[in-house]
Amino acid sequence: MNGPMEGIRTKEVEEVEELAVVTNAKGKVHMETECVVSGKKIQLTASDVETRLKDIIPEPARSLVVEVNGQFYPVKQAFAEVSGLDRADFISHQARSIFLRLGFNVKRLVKSV
């Protein structure tokens, strides 16, 4: 990248460990991931995400959305809710990457002309 933004980096996921497949006592398989975002170690399973968003009303979305429990949430809203991080502490593409690792569908909204 050339120009005035050269050398400037956005906050990134500082460390991402291998995606683990975990089987619970009932034999249900779920995904688990661990990462460090903005200095905070976060360990999540797909089940954690579903549980933590169960009673959360999705906000209007502008760009990237994640489908959880049949609802579409803006990725920043969803990740802030499940991680406890302030939305200013991460970018939407970090949240997108983590949700994809957990097996969720993430989509980009298309603006109609």
Compute the number of strand runs. 7
Computed over alpha carbons, the radius of gyration is 15 Å
Indicate the percent of residues in helices: 10-25%
Low-confidence stretches: 1-24
Q: How would the global form be characterised? A: globular
**Treating each run of at least 4 consecutive H or I residues as one helix, how many helices?**
3
Number of domains: 1
Helix and strand sequence: EEEEHEEHHE
Structural class: alpha+beta
> What is the first-to-last residue Cα distance?
30 Å
> Into which percentage range does the β-strand content fall?
25-35%
The largest pleated sheet is described as:
4 strands, antiparallel
Give an overview in words.
With 113 residues, this protein is an alpha+beta fold. The protein is built from 3 helices and 7 strands; from the N terminus they run ββββαββααβ. The chain has helices at residues 46-53, 75-83, 92-101, and strands at 13-16, 20-23, 29-37, 40-45, 64-68, 71-74, 105-108. The strands form 2 sheets. Strands 1, 2, 3 and 4 form a 4-stranded antiparallel sheet that branches. The chain has a 3-stranded antiparallel sheet with strand order 6-5-7. Strand 5 (64-68) and strand 6 (71-74) form a beta hairpin. Helix 2 packs across helix 3 (92-101). The longest helix is centred in the C-terminal third of the chain and has 10 residues, at 92-101. The two termini are 30 Å apart.
